[in-house]
Amino acid sequence: MVASLLAKLKVIWGVIRRPSVHYSLGFLTLGGFVAGIIFWGGFNVALEASSTEEFCSDCHQNVYHELQSTIHYSNSSGVRATCHDCHVPHKWTDKIARKMQASREIYGQIIGTIDTPEKFEARRGTLAKHEWKRLKANDSQECRDCHKFDSMDFTRQSTRAAQMHSTALASGEKTCIDCHKGIAHRLPDMADVKDF
Amino acid sequence: MKTRKILSVIALVGLSMSAMAATIPADKVATLRQVPLDIEPTPPVMPKVDNTDVEKARSYPMQPPVIPHKIDGYQIDLKANKCMQCHSRQSSTYSKAPMVSVTHYMDRDNNFLATLSPRRYFCTQCHVPQVDAKPLVGNDFVDLHELMKKEK
């Protein structure tokens, strides 16, 4: 068994390392280049397709509807922060890591972990805590991707906002998610959540 | 079946007759609608919520203090009370927000409770933010204090 497999591998290796007989070097180089573009493009298209509102709201429709009345979806300037802006890291390596982690969510989709509003409601606390933990760990990176601390003009904020941001946030004692839980979705039962 | 049909027709005619008879003259209708019913007026611009964070004086001693900030999207339900994130006893030292009055921790027999009393849980039942709007109806409220001064 192992011997025959090794023999096969040896044949393949022989083919790979032998120079091409029929195709020119130019064809192989350009062909490889074009194929690379197609595959890399296809990969990115799939990656982006799995980050759209339509894709997410297929299962998480409850929270998507909740988002629509919040400031991150409907506001005066028309800028919209949608699902992936907050829930998928922007840095490539982190994004791929999160996408790999999300393979578990495919399993959830197959067995129907949250396929009814009741089931979703029962898991709301667990799911919310995952995200709070993630944002706490990365110092609310996905908030800061848009809300740059250095660009915050405290004089244009309300008094209490300026007071909090210039002390607790500036010193790093607190991070965005510590105070701004429930900014985009309804809160789960907060009875056992610290500072609430 | 047939008698029922006839009866309902009679009732309908009767009803419409009485409606015609009871026409109310336009100037007698107490309404805030300034235009005829078949015309859709342009609504006034929505006033801005006062967000100054400056506490407003109460008009009378028992008045629930008004909220001097925006409360858009604040969730107050069985699961969470967003107001209490800052105004609870535990948070107010840190948040510098006024702690909810001690009466909110009492039940109706004046027993003190460890947490917010359920009958005082829904903040916006009594406390409301203020908008910068022209009052729709006149108001001749006089502060009790002013009234007492006049009496003297």
Automatic annotation (TrEMBL), chain A:
Keywords attached to this entry: Cell membrane, Electron transport, Heme, Iron, Membrane, Metal-binding, Transmembrane, Transmembrane helix, Transport
Post-translation changes: Binds 4 heme groups per subunit.
Domain called NapC/NirT cytochrome c N-terminal: residue spans: 19-190
Statement: the UniProt record of this protein carries the keyword Heme: yes
Chief localization: membrane
Transmembrane feature ranges: 21-43
Subcellular location(s) per record: Cell membrane
Bilayer disposition of the protein: Single-pass membrane protein
Pfam families assigned: Cytochrom_NNT (PF03264)
Record has Transmembrane as a keyword: yes
Protein family per UniProt: Belongs to the NapC/NirT/NrfH family.
UniProt-recorded name of the protein: Cytochrome c-type protein
Organism the protein comes from: Shewanella intestini
Lineage: Bacteria, Pseudomonadati, Pseudomonadota, Gammaproteobacteria, Alteromonadales
Automatic annotation (TrEMBL), chain B:
Transmembrane intervals: none
Domain of life: Bacteria
Signal peptide range in chain numbering: 1-21
Predominant place of localization: periplasm
Localization: Periplasm
SUPFAM superfamilies associated with the record: Multiheme cytochromes
Pfam families from the UniProt entry: NapB
Family label: Belongs to the NapB family.
Full protein name: Periplasmic nitrate reductase, electron transfer subunit
Organism of this sequence: Shewanella intestini
